Amino acid sequence: MARFLDTIDGKFHDDGTRFKLNIPFRYVTDIDPKSFGYDDAGLELDPETGLHRLIVVPAGFVTDFASTPKSLWSVAPPIGRHSKGALIHDWLYTKHLEGRPWADRVFLEAMELNGTPYFIKKVYPPMVRVAGRAAWDGTNGPLNDADWNNGHCI
């Protein structure tokens, strides 16, 4: 069963767009990477099921949650009920775990699990497919301590 094992604990940068985790954030997904043609070597074992479905975002990871342009924040905000899913998604994109289609499906699963409003669940997946390519390809990230200090943001 998909579930969040932790609450998000961290701090926002003074600019309000970047967030750094103080402690690891763990999520168990029901989405099998093998059904997407990937192995599961990058995932840890879920302590409950023994399947490689545990995603661990480490302390110190820097995220901007949903990477939406400021001009769209009124309809697609970067922070909301989808924030936990966005955090997981940013980590999966940073580490290239199991492939982009799988990472995008895990994002949708996490949004559904966390009660994200219908409109956001419909808007974000196509936005991620288009705008997420630069982040996946490495031309736009990942965020790290240097980004935390110098103002770079995905």
What does it look like?
34% of the residues lie in helices and 14% in strands. The chain is an alpha+beta fold and 154 residues long. The chain has one domain. The strands form two sheets. It has a four-stranded antiparallel beta sheet with strand order 1-4-6-5. It is globular.
The span between the termini is 31 Å
Q: Kindly provide the radius of gyration, computed on alpha-carbon positions and rounded to a whole number of angstroms.
A: 15 Å
Helix and strand content put the structural class at: alpha+beta
| Strand order across the largest sheet | 1-4-6-5
List low-pLDDT spans. none
Number of domains: 1
Q: Encode the helix/strand succession as letters.
A: EEEEEEEHHHH
Number of H/I helices: 4
Query: What is the residue-mean pLDDT, rounded to a whole number?
Result: 83
| Major sheet | 4 strands, antiparallel
Shape: globular
The portion of residues forming beta strands comes to 5-15%
Q: What is the number of strand segments?
A: 7
Estimate the helix proportion, in percent: 25-40%
